[in-house]
Amino acid sequence: MKGGTNAALSGSVKIQISGMYPEEFINLAADKEIRVWDMEVAGKVLVFSTDFSSLKKLKQMQHDRGFSVEILRETGFVVWLRLLGKRKFLLVGFFCFCLAIYYLSGLVWTVELNGLEEINRAEVREYIRDLGVYKWGKIRDLNLNEIEQNLYVKFPQMAWVAVDRTGTKISIRIVEKEYNPMQFGAVIDIVAEYDGIIFEMMVLKGIPKVEPGMTVAKGDVLIAGYRDGDNMINAAGSVKGRVFLEGYGEAALEEIEKSYTGRQQQVDILQLWGKKIPLSRRPRFDNYEVEESSTSIYSTNIVFLRRLYSEIILNTNIFSPAEADELALLRAMIAAHAQVEEQAVILSKEVEKVSLGEGMFGYRVLLTVETSIGRERVQIRGE
Questions:
Q1: Any idea which architecture 6-81 has in CATH?
Q2: What is the pTM of this model?
């Protein structure tokens, strides 16, 4: 008879009985209502599991029946409580650990600053520190909306600010206002936005660096601005060129499509000297993706891990050879046309079938377009 839930709570014991025939003991156990499970027999030696109430009955009977009882292992919730009662320091340590986790969950472990380019990062960190946003600061005292407003006031170069909290992490996302070089007296050049061949050029201001018929690479200076004494002459004009754009697409007879269900679950893990202790259960997703972040508490010995599980559904799409071939061509066309500017004129289109492995289809689409290829850029010193 199995021990069941009652044995798991009240405790169970694995014992060894010697000096009595197995058949005689089984009859005795049935007569005295002694619970027995997981029995192993070797001659006149029996090894089995029972509960503590049955163990008391066996100890009362062993002198009368002439058999010996040896305890091999004790398990169960009651045994664990008894062990804690004997080891008070272990019990105190467990409660201290729980209190430490609760306390640490109310602190800022990580501060992320994203989007800074021109604004001084150290200056922003120093300012938000005065607002309470720093490692090991109290996270429950933070007013995120107020922090956003203060950042707008302190740094007028910020066009948009968002302060978010995820667990013990504070993320500050910043979008800076676009830099206008005209306001700061910088010379402006017109440079190539694409690789291509110049076919038409009109210079209003500045020094032309190319002429029709020349091949240019992305970033080459087309019309250069310059300084004339105290005067600043910015490049102005129009440059058109023939640009070659390429798109590639492929498809298979059998493809797996991934889609997100929107269900997510966060799992926290405490890593102590290489051993990982889960603080919450892993989700029961059949298919999922995992994003992991870590925060070091004490070197690499104590690390707090946070895993975000996102549930996904995997669907298998089956295509005929004709359908897969058509899909590959469509993907290549979309990839090529996505690069064409609205005002561009498509001069020609070439389609090339790419030889791939069995069950795979591929296409390459090459577009020749006429478009404006010049854009303004602050002059780089030395150009």
A1: 2-Layer Sandwich (3.30)
A2: 0.49
